[in-house]
Specification:
The chain is of the alpha+beta class and 138 residues long. Helices cover 40% and strands 20% of the residues. It binds 2'-deoxyadenosine-5'-diphosphate and magnesium ion (MG).
């Protein structure tokens, strides 16, 4: 049964001109795009999205980075979408990411790591709802 995950192409990957390359990999891996938009988060919105990390030492730099430029936000559908997408993007730190993963190919470091992927079905729903109304999902 197909399920949903939520992704962002982060400001570093947008700045590097990798939107198309990353979308092609998502496409090739068999995900259906259920929603998509191009936008810039405010610091307040980035802080809210990553509120679960508010106690971590890297939170201020994470919020500054994620509000530093436009992102592509999308909801993706596939069988076992959350786990399948985490496999496609690779480890949080690109130095640990498997060959051929999005982060191995396009991320510079653990802080600026090209893409976001939800970590559970529950968070995928919360994150998709943060960005998209029901009118924007297909
Ligand atoms: P992931 O994005 O793989 O789910 P996470 O949820 O643990 O990783 O962290 C969210 C983001 O926070 C991550 O994509 C980049 C940033 N981050 C995580 N660990 C970090 C660290 N040690 N130093 C700097 N930024 C970090
Ligand atoms: Mg995470």
């Amino acid at each position: 049964m197909s399920t949903l995950t939520f992704t962002m192409i982060k400001p570093d990957a947008v700045r590097a001109g990798n939107i198309g390359n990353i979308l092609a990999m998502i496409n090739q891996a068999g995900f259906r795009i259920a929603a998509m938009k191009y936008l810039k988060l405010s610091e307040q919105q980035a802080g809210q999205f990553y509120a679960v990390h508010a106690h971590r030492p890297f939170y201020p730099e994470l919020v500054a980075f994620m509000s530093s430029g436009p992102i592509v936000a999308a909801v993706l559908e596939k069988e076992d979408a959350v786990a399948s997408f985490r496999t496609l993007i690779g480890a949080t730190n690109p130095a640990d990411a498997a060959e051929g993963t999005i982060r191995k190919l396009y991320a510079a470091n653990v802080g600026e790591n090209a893409v976001h992927g939800s970590d559970s079905d529950e968070n995928a729903q919360i994150e998709a709802n943060f960005f998209f109304s029901s009118l924007e999902r297909f």
